[in-house]
Structure formats: structure tokens, C-alpha cells
Amino acid sequence: MDSESSSSRASSRQLWESLRNWWREEARENGAAKTLLLLMRKLWSFVRESTPEQRRRRYGDMEYDWEHRVNTTSGTIGWKARLMGLLHSPYQATEADLFQEMMASLPIAFEQFTFVDLGSGKGRTLLMASEYPFRKIIGVELIAELHHAAEENIREYRSATQRCTQIEAVLGNAREFEFPEEPLVLYLFNPLPERALACVIDRLQQSLERAPQPVWIVYQNPLLGRVLDASAAFVRVGGSERYSIYSGKVA
Ligand SMILES: C[S@@+](CC[C@H](N)C(=O)[O-])C[C@H]1O[C@@H](n2cnc3c(N)ncnc32)[C@H](O)[C@@H]1O
User: Fold this and answer.
1) Are 167 and 154 contacting, i.e. CB atoms less than 8 angstroms apart?
2) CA torsion, ordered 67, 52, 38, 23, to nearest 10 deg
3) 188 CA: nearest ligand 1 atom
4) Could you read off the pLDDT of 25-35 as tens digits, one per residue?
5) Domain 96-248 bears CATH identifier 3.40.50.150
6) Which residues does residue 168 pair with via DSSP β-bridges, in sequence order?
């Protein structure tokens, strides 16, 4: 069997697994009838998003790729990965200008910190973070197709101004990620639903109780900012209408 068809089978398997897990979780919380309705809505939105016009719109994020000769656009994602995105969190790459603005608002010595992006997609944030002198950069992505694109982007990225080359892309579930016990900048762009995000933040808090470290959270488009606002371990210290910056209380 060639590697293309085996990777296509792997992504079909991942899609069915995702669908099964998604169904189980939603149905437990909302009942089967509501979950079926939600699934129909998602499928309808998938169909609407598949028109040539919507596809062209997704290519609107290509500027970064042209400039850096990488492939982080949401325009070229296969249908299985897009469908999985609807069940989890659709892939959308962070804009370069906004990323720079967010990094500029962190009052830290970058070289002491590890950057972690939970839900790193095709890895654009990992490349952008590598322009800062972070100790290390880690991205965790659930969808194999996006993870493989991130790996390739990391390999291909060439920049005379790159300051960090310790970049690791991990294929896995952000819900299970074990935070390294070291100073962290945690980057979030809505990878998780509310309950899962609350669990991840709780786990981070427990890790900080075991081994206190400075931690900063950069949350782009903070739709679930209430989860962090409610956490005893973090306090919102800045941001704009497009992002929030939280600091760990021990930072
Ligand atoms: C809005 S995109 C952000 C991509 C990237 N962080 C960026 O800013 O360019 C959210 C990403 O989270 C990923 N994701 C969703 N659920 C996840 C999970 N449980 N574990 C890891 N990644 C997940 C999606 O596949 C998607 O790539």
C-alpha cells in the first residue's frame, strides 16, 4: 500500500473516531435529539463553506505564506480535516501583525520561557514565535493532516532573523498535554470547548502548585475568556478587544 492511501485511511479513521467521541460527549451533555440537530447544523455549515466562493475567501490568509514560502493557509485543507475542524475548532491561522502586537505586550525575558501553542494547526504561530528568542517552542495539534503540514513548515522555514530553532510539533490532544514545569507562554486561539478548556487550565494550575513558575497566557479572540477570568491562578493584565493577556499569580 502506498503512503498516500495509508495516510488517507488514517485520516478517515481519525474522522470517525472524532465523530464518535464528539457524539458521545455532546449526547451526554445535551441528549441525543439536540446532538443530532447540532450535527445537522454543522454539516450544513460544512456544505456552505465548501462553495468555490468560500474556498477563495479562505485563501485570503495567504500573504504570510507568500512572504515566507510556507503552507499555513486554511485554503488548502482537505475535506476530512475541515470536517474534523467543525467538530473541534476550525483551523484558522493567526495574523502576523496581531501576533507581533501580542508578543510586544508581554513584559518578559523571552529567553527564559517556553512557548506552547495548544491547537497549533499548520504551525504558523510556531514559525512566528521562532522570531523571538524563546528557549523552546512546542505546538500540539489534534488533526494529523495539519500536524504534518506544521512539521513540513518547520523544516522548510528559512529566516535570517530566526531566534529559536528548538521547535517541536506534537500530534496529540491538547486536553492531555502535560505542561513542562518551566516558565511558559501559553498561546490559545480557541482550540477547545469550555469544559475541556477549564480542565486544561485546572491541570496547569495544579502543575503550578507543584512547581511554581511564571506563566503568561496569550488568548486570541477570547470567546471563553470567562474560563480564565474564573481561575484562581490567573489574572487578566492586558489586551484589547482582539486578545487577552493573563498572568499567573506567581509570575
Ligand atoms: C483556530 S485554530 C488556531 C491555529 C493556530 N493556533 C494559530 O493560531 O495559527 C484552532 C486549532 O486547534 C486545533 N484543535 C482543536 N481541538 C484540539 C485538541 N483537542 N487538541 C489539539 N488541537 C486541537 C484545531 O485542529 C485547529 O488547528
Assistant:
1) yes
2) -60
3) 6
4) 999 989 999 99
5) yes
6) 138
User: Using a 6 Å cutoff on CB, does residue 153 contact ligand 1?
Assistant: no
* Residue in the block written with cell 495544579: 206
pLDDT at res. 3: 66
Domain with CATH 3.40.50.150 in the chain: 96-248
Site to probe by mutation for ligand 1, drawn from 142, 173, 243 as the one with most ligand atoms within 8 Å of Cβ, is 142
pLDDT on residue 46:
87
pTM over 0.85: yes
Q: Which amino acid is at 91?
A: Y
Higher pLDDT: 120 or 88? It is 120
> Is 22 a pocket residue for ligand 1 (Cβ < 6 Å)?
no
User: Closest Cα to atom 23, ligand 1: which residue?
Assistant: 119
CA–centroid distance, residue 141 to ligand 1 (Å): 6
Inter-helix orientation angle 32-49/79-87, to 10°: 140
124 lines ligand 1 (CB under 6 A): yes
Beta bridge partners of 170: 140
Strand partners, 114: 136, 184
189 CA from centroid of ligand 1 (Å): 7
Give me the amino acid identity at 146.
L
Distances (CA, A) of 228 to 185, 197, 219: 15, 9, 10
Q: Whose CA is closest to atom 8 on ligand 1? A: 94
